[in-house]
Design a protein that fits this description.
The chain is an alpha+beta fold. It contains 14 helices and 18 strands. Among the domains are: 120-192 and 421-443, Dna Ligase, domain 1, CATH 3.30.1490; 269-327, no CATH class. A five-stranded mixed sheet has the order 3-2-1-6-11, with helices on both faces. The chain has a five-stranded mixed sheet with strand order 14-13-12-17-18, with helices on both faces. A four-stranded antiparallel sheet has the order 7-10-8-9. Residues 44-50 and 426-437 have low confidence and may be disordered.
Length: 444
Amino acid sequence: MTGLYQAQRAMRAMRRAAIQRGVIAILDVGTSKMACLILRFDARERVVEGEGIGAMAGQTQFRVIGAATTRSRGIELGETTAVQETERAIRTAVQAAQKMANVRVDHVIACLSGGMPRSYGLAGQVNVEGDIVSETDVARVLAACDLPDVGADREVLHAQPVNFALDHRSGLIDPRDQIGQRLACDMHMLTVDRAVIENLIYCLKRCDLELAGLTNSAYASGVSALVEDEQELGAACIDMGGGTTGLSIFMKKHMIYADAVRLGGAHVTQDISKGLQVSAAVAERIKTFHGGVVATGMDDREMIEIGGETGDWEHDRRTVSRAELIGIIRPRIEEILEEVRQRLDAAGFEHLPSQQIVLTGGASQIPGLDTLAPKILGQQVRVGRPLRVHGLPQAATGSAFASAVGLSLFAAHPQDEWWDFEMPSELGAPRSLKRAVKWFRDNW
């Protein structure tokens, strides 16, 4: 665990250094697309990072000066399956963004949707040294949190304090300089498959890029697609990507749970390809231009030219009604939403004071989803778009770019994690595992 702690500290130091120099790249490593944004932190706009504990505590101004996307290669279910292909896709996206920005970047902050994320809720408490809580006391209480045995093949991606209590006064955002005797902390920890991270780092190294930060895609999407009130009162962000559908739950502006369903828009394309016996490229085009999940009487009469490239004229000039197409798409979308519902139930989502659900990601743009989703997930569902950021091209303002925009906000306003504090050398021994959402049940 100590090696991981040092690696995370090194990455965060690298991120700070890159921001001081003025430019950094953002890379959304997706199953269907590779998106790269280049951010400039102008000296006149740069603000000293804040010292507060909590979501997006440090404030740094930035603008997007380069943006590019390319089709992903060598990635399935959000995980690298062919290193050379992935390297080529990363290189293509980064070079195109560098060309637009007219600047070279060496450091990149990436987000990934694969790795089978797993959430843990940890708790710890210590006696305060003296009467006033110091930074050392915060570090000690974080180190005192019970660490579960996550397994040798797992890596901790996030470890964020989500709640502090001082002498039974709960819900504190920043306990430092407050008077009290006993300090307690609840923490959310997210782990992913180590091999997935190592493969990504290897691909970036082959592209002569240094990794200056790594986050979960569903977390990044939640940061950009949930408005401030939703993050405060409790909301879930469902990031419907190509290979996976990620979900993150936010409460009091902290992510308190994350998970992923290994199904996405690419599986819908596969269903169309098999059902209509066309190539994946034709299936993707049909899905994009004619797809939907709610059929009306009109759809029986609306005929779609399938087209094809087989050379058999009779086979290639077939038509299919839009109602038939919807009949292929809807079961898969329902399956994805049912899986998401199960994950939300397992997380205890119904205990939140607000149960807002925001759908984002490329696959959330399918027509009729806003009608179908509330039937499965609950009434408070909306399709979200990422926040507007300075310099972002119009083409990159849609739901498909929620992760990339959220990653930009994460780069400029990092959330405090346990490696931000000078931790005692002995990190707590693995003991009990607590539920990821227990703390807010006790506090609301």
